[in-house]
């Protein structure tokens, strides 16, 4: 059995243990070396017997072992040098990439597409008077400013291709062929003694049947499960029994808040639901008309099973129970009291999101969708009322970016995403119509920021092909933020709601704003001034047309 004299570790046969160089060298002297002094006296216990170490160890101190150690040492230094170079390279690469992103390099980044400007964006429910408080001048990045002319050429090309064509409205029979089940569930007429569109539907289950067992909202969303657990408990108590049959009251919304995202729809929803005669769906944004009926739960997850219309109607059961209570009250039976409770729905995608059409409808219209959401809503509810809340599209886009982008947010990053989106939009409009590009699923998914959502007039004109102008109330977030009481009065009047007491009105108008900008997003400051200038140029022709359609120059957003 062999051991290393310095390490006292077991050696295999013929192992010289060349890695150990603590005391062996070319000029080694056992008498002078403090480690080797008296090594003949170092005892080693092997098999419980004390032995002289040199009696069992073979120690070799020839020069070949020393030279091997020298080369091994050189090899270690070389490895350390290579490792150090790798670390230095990674550090430099990180610096270069970070510098390019934030404009810190001495040479301009090749990834700067263009430049845009912005003043601080209004929070979704922030008043215009607060703009000066939140405004912080951006430091101008010269490379972005120099890109302005090239991006301006892109916008000029887009502007030259803009043409607002009237859409051909599909007839009712075409709609029936596309959605036969929906037409078999929703009747042509509603109860005459209810302001809200409701009807009775025969229920064929029994007391042990779970009416919500297959509801897709309950199956795929945890937040709905509590609501449906409650509805299961009270469901049988709200059935109407007539001639041995059971009927349940079904309702659709009387009004829809249809858009737009990041324009204050949440704040309007929260205030409206405080009115004693207003109820809403179980969730603010069911997104049924635009997504769920096509099987879209999350856009990034692709398609699932389509949500039937019954699942959508289930969301209004809580409100339907209250309406039924009014209809079956003594006052209603004796004096024919009218139900004044109305139901609303506030999916902010309803106005603009028709991206799923390409997967379900025949594409024979040169890239334009043959059927839109409003066609079906109008087919069932020709008297529906629609509320639209808009804001300066430039500020809306920046707010949208800050809300939906989760990492590496900055004014520079927003600028580059806007530039890329403009280039993609230009590529589309060179070959297709404006409407085809606005509703183009591939383009909308490819654009890093949702430019198309701010093209308000394109969507509004399409809604006006099926609904009368007096059925649509268009508001501005800027007016809502600066004169909340006035805009809420406009909404109450539009919906024919009963006047409120001073106490009720104070509760609605003095509540804090909802869904305001997050503090961490506010700290990023405004968009670059060049970004704002470019976006102003892009949206200008659309805002001009919008102001003409609404006969209101406030929708030019010149003062924001």
TrEMBL record:
Gene3D superfamilies: P-loop containing nucleotide triphosphate hydrolases. InterPro entries: CS_Sulfotransferase (IPR052654), P-loop_NTPase (IPR027417), Sulfotransferase_dom (IPR000863). One of its GO terms (biological process) is hexose biosynthetic process. Residues 253-517 form the Sulfotransferase domain. The chain crosses the membrane at residues 78-97. Its EC number is 2.8.2.-. This is Sulfotransferase. The lineage of its organism: Eukaryota, Metazoa, Chordata, Craniata, Vertebrata. The gene is Chst15.
């Amino acid at each position: 059995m062999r051991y290393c004299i310095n390490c006292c570790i077991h050696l295999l046969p013929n192992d010289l243990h060349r890695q150990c160089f603590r005391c062996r060298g070319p000029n080694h002297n056992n008498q002078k070396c403090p480690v080797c002094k008296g090594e003949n006296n170092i005892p080693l216990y092997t098999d419980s017997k004390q032995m002289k170490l040199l009696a069992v160890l073979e120690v070799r101190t020839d020069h070949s072992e020393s030279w091997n150690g020298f080369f091994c040492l050189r090899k270690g230094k070389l490895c350390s040098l290579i490792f150090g170079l790798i670390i230095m390279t990674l550090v430099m690469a990180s610096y270069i990439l970070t510098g390019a992103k934030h404009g810190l390099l001495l040479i301009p980044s090749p990834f700067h597409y263009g430049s845009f400007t912005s003043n601080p964006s209004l929070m979704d429910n922030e008043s215009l008077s607060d703009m000066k408080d939140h405004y912080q001048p951006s430091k101008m990045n010269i490379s972005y400013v120099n890109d302005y002319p090239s991006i301006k050429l892109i916008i000029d090309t887009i502007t030259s291709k803009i043409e607002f064509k009237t859409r051909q409205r599909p007839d009712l029979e075409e709609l029936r062929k596309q959605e036969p089940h929906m037409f078999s569930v929703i009747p042509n007429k509603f109860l005459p003694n209810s302001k809200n569109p409701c009807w009775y539907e025969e229920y064929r289950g029994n007391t042990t049947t779970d009416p919500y067992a297959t509801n897709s909202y309950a199956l795929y969303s945890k937040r709905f499960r509590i609501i449906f657990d409650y509805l299961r408990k009270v469901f049988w108590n709200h059935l109407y029994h007539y001639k041995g049959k059971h009927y349940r009251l079904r309702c659709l919304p009387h009004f829809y808040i249809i858009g737009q995202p990041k324009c204050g729809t949440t704040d309007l929803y929260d205030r409206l639901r405080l009115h004693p005669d207003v109820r809403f769906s179980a969730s603010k944004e069911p997104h049924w008309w635009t997504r769920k009926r096509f099987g879209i739960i999350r856009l990034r997850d692709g398609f699932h099973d389509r949500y039937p219309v019954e699942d959508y109607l289930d969301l209004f059961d809580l409100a339907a129970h209250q309406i039924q209570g009014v209809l079956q009250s003594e006052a209603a039976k004796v004096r024919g009291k009218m139900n004044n409770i109305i139901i609303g729905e506030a999916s902010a995608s309803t106005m603009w999101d028709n991206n799923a059409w390409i997967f379900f409808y025949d594409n024979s219209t040169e890239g334009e969708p043959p059927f839109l959401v409003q066609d079906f809503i109008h087919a069932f509810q020709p008297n529906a009322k629609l509320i639209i809340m808009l804001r300066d599209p430039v500020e809306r886009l920046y707010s949208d970016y800050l809300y939906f982008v989760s990492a590496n947010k900055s004014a520079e990053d927003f600028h580059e995403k806007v530039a890329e989106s403009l280039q993609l939009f230009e590529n589309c409009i060179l070959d297709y119509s404006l409407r085809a590009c606005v509703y183009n699923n591939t383009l909308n998914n490819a654009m890093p920021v949702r430019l198309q959502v701010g093209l308000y007039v394109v969507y509004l004109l399409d809604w006006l092909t099926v609904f009368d102008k007096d059925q649509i109330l268009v508001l501005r977030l800027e007016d809502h933020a600066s004169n909340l009481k006035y805009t809420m009065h406009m909404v109450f009047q539009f919906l024919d709601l009963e006047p409120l007491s001073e106490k009720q009105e104070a509760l609605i108008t003095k509540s804090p704003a909802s869904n305001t900008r997050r503090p961490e997003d506010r700290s990023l400051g405004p968009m670059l001034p060049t970004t704002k200038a470019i976006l102003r140029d892009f949206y200008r022709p659309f805002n001009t047309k919008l102001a003409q359609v609404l006969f209101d120059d406030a929708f030019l957003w010149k003062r924001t």
